[in-house]
């Protein structure tokens, strides 16, 4: 190994240890975080080769295989369900398709699951921020049936309810209603997983989404009518779940109707000086994607991965830059981040990919790097344990080796930029912060790692600001 790499290993190890201490001691400073809008039930099944092959043999196998390369992107039959699962395995890619057929929904329920977890970006972040980091967290739940409420861990996690015209915050378990179970069936597979002649190049998951509420970004009455009272109780907000919006709905409404409501809530957050983060999940519809980019000036911060950044560049930049971002060229990623900041004026952009994170900010400080390092520990812990329950699991991730491939990228950055210090790059009017992450060789599951990264970095960075 190169001498410089040995040094880097030592250096980043020390930085990781210090970051964990700095971040965890700052977390109690956050008065409250608001998470909206998507919460659901994730029914996770770890795929089994024999079971899957048997199920495909029972239906039109040829049809299933023909759908692998001509994806319908939605599920109206069992063939489409299994075509989607096989496509996700073949490409090693995360996919999420909506289940339109009642019959398939019943089949999915009968097939069952190995594990139920709280799902949706907002739900996942609530269990992390409230349950693990112990920060008072208000979460939006479109529906609150017992099955879902029981998946929230104990801790300062709240949903707003109105009693005698007064806003009250209670744990979801204390506000259970006879409402719908919004279930997302998640099929996880490890790297190398093989079914017939289809093999997974990397671990990932396919999601069959049987949830009519989050698909339209349904907002509870409390959030529609009393948002100001809720927002007054927090310092920070994370908005997610807008990726599912469609251009038109059968009843004549459009994505614009939903985004109008979201915008008026953002205006309230801004008036109250609540810092807000937008979690940019992959948004298939281009018009919706463009509208979401158009809303970024109202946010403080945005988080995205390579697929999402590339999809943004398709709208605000050109095809060749979009392609380079997707291929993982770090300088193209930096160009794209600068372009997005120029276009929207947003103060903070956090990019995460397999092996490293980069953040571009209109302010400076070592706390930005500390927050990213803390987020990488949380991500590694999430990959290791599946479900995070306490901070000592996050501390345990200190023992996961730092990704050495990212050192090559760090050296490229050091060659390109004059001022680079331990991942911090001075760009005169902006700071660029780079960190190598920790990669868990065989993760327990993959769902929710991105949410863990983004929320840990955003919240701990603002906590460390004091
Ligand atoms: P997303 O693309 O938003 O779903 O987030 C996935 C992120 O999780 C990737 O960008 C990686 O940074 C991180 N990640 C995925 N697999 C692992 C792993 N095995 N160990 C650590 N981090 C991981
Ligand atoms: C999407 C899925 C949800 C999952 C989440 C994880 O929102 O619909 O099921 O929990 O992504 O990021």
Question: What can you tell me about this protein's structure?
Answer:
A hairpin with a 2-residue loop joins strand 18 and strand 19 (424-427). The chain folds into two domains: 3-40 and 120-180 and 213-463, Ribokinase (UDP-N-acetylmuramoyl-L-alanine:D-glutamate ligase), CATH 3.40.1190; 42-117 and 181-210, Adenosine kinase, small domain, CATH 3.30.1110. With 466 residues, the protein is of the alpha/beta class. The longest helix is centred in the first third of the chain and has 24 residues, at 3-26. The protein has 18 helices and 20 strands. Strands 8-7-6-1-13-14-15-16-17-20-19-18 form a twelve-stranded mixed β-sheet, with helices on both faces. The site of alpha-D-glucopyranose has 15 residues, from strand 2, helix 6, strand 12 and helix 18.
List key phrases describing it.
binds adenosine monophosphate; six-stranded mixed sheet; Adenosine kinase, small domain; 44% helix; 466 residues; alpha/beta; twelve-stranded mixed sheet; single chain; globular; 20% strand; 18 helices; UDP-N-acetylmuramoyl-L-alanine:D-glutamate ligase; binds alpha-D-glucopyranose
